[in-house]
Design a protein that fits this description.
By secondary structure, the protein is α+β, with helices and mostly antiparallel strands. Mean pLDDT is 85; it is low at 1-32. It is elongated, with a radius of gyration of 32 Å. It has eleven helices and 14 strands.
């Protein structure tokens, strides 16, 4: 190539300054190699990140700022006392409302193979230009326009996700750093921070790649516009477009897998994942047993003090008793007092209804409350009840067993039973640090309504 014409080089340099440093680097590299790279490169790293990492981030976001207002959660109670919590909560809300949705939109854009098709058309058009094929310039311009629009969409989405995710990471790093130093967690399920380092690296690579491809496209357009052989500009027949078809197929495959995982990931953002810990039929009644007394056949039983009269007590204690024989379900008896039904209140919270006789009729029901007692509750409009009757299933390492935390007490107080056979092992809210077997519960369906 002719590199001695200083006048032409000055013109070329002015053009490069106008289009930016990235274009200059891309253009010089292409001029040296005779190739223009349009492969996605490291952009595919984002959707190669393990699904568990996304679950970790989404669950953290849910516990910090997306859970039902008014519930007590250990993590949030501790974080909101630390410096920078307002910024963390704000960036967390953006993650839940916007950032993760934009990630899905970005994945949808990349799951399509349209970018690959645009690049193939561009490649063909460049070949036709070098062969002086009629209409090739129009084909080139159309393909280049389509690629430019696609890159603009990808770049705008990626930059927005990158900025928002980094704001979330920086805010959480600051607050979690204080949390770990001053107040370490007490429970295995207290998720003390999102693992966002790899997201930041992958997003940076993606943003950088779209910028590079945009520069490469601008270089290619100028190459076609300038006379062939101009200093620093290769002959068209020397120019090779590296499309990276396999790499585009790979990023599309990974993006489709990311989208396939979205129902599970959105469950972590909404709290619906907690329902998976104890998947129950709201139309069934269940027996509740705990690990401490399961080998004896004891089940959780609601017991009201004294005989049932025309005006019965509206509060019942909970005890553990041997499973009773099923009798007439219309009457208050031992069997029905051992049956429980679970109602979904949303965001992973349940109401736990006892089947003891309801002498007052609808809309009153008997619900398990914060004191591990059953109380008559008048349901508000739409079935809304106080959060003192809200419960959440917490997963344990033992398959089929879970713990029950109350929304008003938090996840460090768990439904338990005293080791006192003289009083039939009464229920109470135990400290999770003790990790007693009475805190591990399992459900068995027993009857239809």
């Amino acid at each position: 190539m002719n590199r001695s014409n200083s006048g032409v080089r000055s013109i070329i340099l002015s053009m490069l300054v106008a289009t930016g440093l990235a274009l200059a680097v891309s253009r010089n590299a292409a001029a040296e190699s005779g190739a223009v790279d349009f492969s996605p490169g490291d952009a595919s790293q984002l959707f190669a990140l393990p699904v568990g990492m996304w679950s970790n981030i989404n669950q953290f976001a849910f516990l910090v700022c997306l859970d039902e207002p008014g519930v007590k959660a250990t993590l949030n109670d501790r974080l909101n006392q630390l410096g920078g919590y307002a910024e963390l909560r704000s960036s967390c809300q953006v993650w839940g409302s916007t950032t993760f949705s934009n990630l899905q939109t970005l994945a949808t854009e990349l799951a399509s193979d349209d970018m690959k098709q645009f690049l193939l058309r561009l490649q063909t058009a460049v070949q036709n230009l070098s062969n002086n094929t009629g209409g090739a310039r129009g084909e080139f311009d159309q393909a280049a326009d389509n690629i430019s629009k696609k890159l603009t969409t990808l770049s705008e989405l990626s930059q927005q996700v990158n900025q928002q995710s980094m704001a979330f990471k920086n805010a959480s790093d600051s607050v979690i750093g204080q949390y770990r130093k001053n107040n370490p967690p007490d429970s295995s399920w207290v998720n003390i921070g999102p693992k966002m380092e790899d997201v930041g690296l992958a997003m940076g690579s993606m943003v950088g790649r779209w910028n590079m491809l945009t520069s490469n496209l601008a270089y290619l357009r100028k190459t076609v516009a300038l006379p062939a052989g101009t200093s620093g500009i290769p002959q068209l027949y020397d120019l090779d477009l590296e499309v990276g078809l396999n790499a585009w197929d790979e990023i599309s495959r990974r993006a489709r897998q990311f989208l396939a995982d979205m129902p599970a990931q959105n469950a972590y953002l909404s709290g619906a994942n907690y329902y998976q810990n104890c998947p129950l039929d709201e139309n069934r009644w269940y027996l509740m047993t705990n690990s401490f007394l399961s080998d004896k056949g004891y089940v959780l039983t609601a017991r009201r003090p004294g005989p049932v009269s025309a005006v019965p007590q509206h509060t019942a204690g909970t005890i553990m008793k041997p499973r009773a024989r099923q009798n007439d379900q219309g009457n208050y008896n031992e069997a029905t007092s051992q049956q429980w039904r679970f109602h979904r209140y949303g965001k992973g919270w349940w109401g736990i209804e006892s089947r003891i006789r309801n002498d007052t009729g609808s809309p009153a029901i008997f619900l398990l409350g914060t004191t591990a007692q059953v109380e008559r509750v008048m349901q508000g409009q739409g079935g809304v009840v106080s959060k003192s009757y809200w419960w959440r299933c917490l997963k344990t390492d033992s398959s089929g067993w879970f713990r029950l935390a109350n929304a008003s007490l938090g996840d460090l107080k768990i439904l338990d039973t005293y080791n006192n056979p003289d009083t039939f092992f009464p229920g109470f809210m135990g400290n999770t640090k003790e990790n007693y077997s009475g805190q591990f519960w399992k459900l068995e369906p027993v009857a239809n309504p």
